[in-house]
TrEMBL record:
<dbReference type="InterPro" id="IPR007627">
    <property type="entry name" value="RNA_pol_sigma70_r2"/>
</dbReference>
<feature type="domain" description="RNA polymerase sigma-70 region 2">
    <location>
        <begin position="42"/>
        <end position="107"/>
    </location>
</feature>
<dbReference type="InterPro" id="IPR036388">
    <property type="entry name" value="WH-like_DNA-bd_sf"/>
</dbReference>
<comment type="similarity">
    <text>Belongs to the sigma-70 factor family. ECF subfamily.</text>
</comment>
<dbReference type="InterPro" id="IPR013249">
    <property type="entry name" value="RNA_pol_sigma70_r4_t2"/>
</dbReference>
<keyword id="KW-0238">DNA-binding</keyword>
<keyword id="KW-0804">Transcription</keyword>
<dbReference type="GO" id="GO:0016987">
    <property type="term" value="F:sigma factor activity"/>
</dbReference>
<dbReference type="InterPro" id="IPR013324">
    <property type="entry name" value="RNA_pol_sigma_r3/r4-like"/>
</dbReference>
<feature type="domain" description="RNA polymerase sigma factor 70 region 4 type 2">
    <location>
        <begin position="131"/>
        <end position="183"/>
    </location>
</feature>
<dbReference type="Pfam" id="PF04542">
    <property type="entry name" value="Sigma70_r2"/>
</dbReference>
<dbReference type="InterPro" id="IPR013325">
    <property type="entry name" value="RNA_pol_sigma_r2"/>
</dbReference>
<keyword id="KW-0731">Sigma factor</keyword>
<dbReference type="InterPro" id="IPR014284">
    <property type="entry name" value="RNA_pol_sigma-70_dom"/>
</dbReference>
<keyword id="KW-0805">Transcription regulation</keyword>
<dbReference type="Pfam" id="PF08281">
    <property type="entry name" value="Sigma70_r4_2"/>
</dbReference>
<dbReference type="GO" id="GO:0006352">
    <property type="term" value="P:DNA-templated transcription initiation"/>
</dbReference>
């Protein structure tokens, strides 16, 4: 950063500085807030969000599509989104909302197709362990699944998940505990019926 004409200016290629005049006329000083650029946020968080949604969907391409759509929506509104306390939280929420919406549509479509005709597999499927894990995750309540993915794949602490979900930290701990227990039960049942 450099100071020019009494204002703080970013170095070339650095984050933008937004000047805000002091509130209610309590002085002529200028408050400054550093806002991240869209490129910085995208570079720092695209991969993490993709991994989280990949665990949710079990489909890398679908996860990438959802994350790209969320970042596109952020880019269109970047002047507003960049001013939020945590622009990444807004992008994550949009991505999760899109993911849930797509998951519901896919579930509805699959249910309809099952009623119409029997679906034959067209290609060799993924590893059975991966399929079992994705199926076990899909069977969990959405809150438990989100908490597990954000905590174990997104490396978010319990307090951060609680803040993002708008619940107490104890609730998130309960979701994690119940989610782990349900996964253990489901995966153990899978192992006892023919797994290694």
């Amino acid at each position: 950063m450099r100071i020019s004409g009494g204002r703080v200016q970013p170095a070339a290629g650095a984050r933008r500085v937004v000047a805000v005049t002091a509130i209610a006329g309590y002085g002529s000083e200028t408050l400054t807030a550093v806002r991240p650029s869209f490129d910085e946020v995208y570079a720092a968080h695209y991969a993490d969000l993709t991994v989280q949604l990949y665990a949710y969907f079990g489909d890398r391409q679908e996860a990438q599509d959802v994350v790209q759509e969320a970042f596109y929506r952020a880019l269109v509104r970047w002047n507003s989104v960049a001013g939020y306390d945590d622009p990444v939280a807004w992008i994550r929420r949009v991505a999760w909302n899109l993911a849930v919406s797509r998951w519901r549509k896919a579930r509805t479509s699959l249910s309809f197709l099952r009623k119409q005709r029997r679906i034959e597999p067209q290609a060799e499927g993924p590893d059975p362990d991966r399929v079992a894990l994705v199926a076990a995750l899909a069977a969990l309540p959405a809150a438990h699944r989100r908490a597990l993915v954000l905590h174990y794949l997104g490396d978010l602490p319990v307090a951060e998940i609680a803040r993002r979900e708008g619940v107490a930290a104890g609730t998130v701990k309960s979701w994690l505990h119940r989610g782990r227990a349900a996964l253990a039960t489901q995966l153990d049942l899978t192992d006892s019926t023919g797994g290694a």
